[in-house]
Design brief:
Elements (H helix, E strand, L loop, with lengths): L1 H16 L1 H7 L15 E6 L6 E8 L14 H14 L3 E10 L1 E3 H18 L3 E10 L1 H4 L6 E4 L4 E3 L4 E2 L5 H7 L26 H33 L18 E3 H6 L5 E2 L2 H12 L5 E6 L4 H9 L22 E4 L7
Parallel strand pairs: 2-3, 2-11, 3-5, 5-6, 5-7, 6-10
Antiparallel strand pairs: 1-11, 4-12, 7-9, 8-12
């Protein structure tokens, strides 16, 4: 009884202290309302008795543009919000982008890449990429514009390329006696439709899709080339330059951190501590506290968990978390890495 009363008292105090936050939690905040940084709070990860700060931004999992919750904010907003806040804080002298990702949507990865480039140009603060066990395809795409890239020897990276995925189930439909009836305004309106027979897929359709892939792939290589050249110019002799034949390795193959270092895709081999020391050196400061920006505890989000029903979906536990890939979207993604 005493424990129950104590817990009730703590809950009551917490409810009163977070009353305003609770109301905000139930309020819909569209992403167009501005950066998500005003919904973040600063947390010290390591305190080194320094007036300087180095911000850690975690980029984990598949890079998607979908919003996380009813606030309307997704990963891109989250990263942009943190960079915006770090730029306005004079005590933040550098940023470490901690990557553990197989890649993801082309547009989401490109938005984050552009945000990193603009942040470094506008605020003159370096972004150091720290690759974890996996930083492939779009995971490398967002690292390419960083001032310095650190990878472990065993990091899986590379996988530079673009993929568009679809299924064709017309053969199965024929077996069960189902035939689609399609009415369309133009001959290409049903491109990528899964119920098209092989002979109905026009050569022009295949060419248009391949041209789209090739155009996006050119953009990927451009980001790698410009990012590494800009870093090389600022790092001078300390950083690594791209190998003369680096484009031969931009064919979708995965690379170890050691191999990526040899080709100039990364600047240094090491751990997160290596990235921290490098960020301090590049920023020209003797010491710094490590910080994160995170979303504060929101009772509204807690109550929404109970309010959301799972009756609309059926989950099958296969021991892996399947990526939410959508037909017709372009991805900077290493498919073999998404089921780890």
């Amino acid at each position: 009884m005493f424990l129950a009363l104590a817990l009730a008292a703590v809950l009551g105090v917490s409810l009163l202290a977070n009353f305003t936050q609770l109301l905000n939690g139930f309020t819909f905040r569209p992403s167009s309302s501005g950066p998500a940084q005003r919904f973040l709070e600063e947390v010290t990860v390591e305190y080194h008795r320094s007036p300087n700060k180095i911000l850690i931004i975690d980029l984990v999992g598949i890079i998607l543009s979908d919003p996380w919750d009813r606030s309307g904010h997704g990963l891109v907003d989250y990263v942009e919000g943190q960079l915006d806040r770090a730029g306005k804080d004079g005590d933040v002298r550098a940023v470490i982008l901690k990557i553990d990702s197989p890649g993801g949507e082309v547009l989401a990865a490109d938005d984050i890449s552009r945000a990193i480039t603009e942040f470094q140009q506008k605020h003159r603060k370096p972004v150091i990429a720290s690759m974890g066990s996996l930083a492939a395809s779009g995971g490398y795409y967002v690292a390419a514009p960083c001032r310095w890239i650190v990878a472990n020897e065993l990091t899986i990276t590379g996988s530079i390329g673009v993929i568009m995925h679809s299924y064709n189930y017309r053969g199965l439909m024929n077996k069960v006696g189902v035939r689609p009836e399609v009415f369309k305004s133009g001959k290409f309106k049903d491109m990528l439709s899964g119920d098209k027979a092989e002979e109905d897929i026009l050569p022009e359709e295949r060419k248009m899709l391949q041209d789209l892939i090739d155009e996006t792939f050119i953009r990927f290589k451009q980001v790698v080339r410009e990012g590494r050249e800009a870093a090389r110019e600022k790092n001078q002799s300390q950083g690594r330059a791209l190998a003369g034949n680096w484009e031969e390795y931009a064919d979708g193959r995965i690379l170890s951190g050691k191999h990526a270092y040899a080709q100039g895709f990364v600047d240094e081999l090491g751990s997160f501590d290596t990235a921290f020391e490098r960020a301090r050196k590049v920023a020209g400061i003797p010491s710094a506290n490590l910080i994160r920006y995170q979303r504060p505890f929101d009772l509204g989000n807690l109550f929404r968990l109970f309010g959301e029903t799972e009756s609309r979906t059926v989950k099958v536990d296969l021991g892996v978390e399947l990526p939410k890939l959508q037909v017709g979207r372009l991805y900077f993604l290493s498919p073999s890495m998404t089921f780890q």
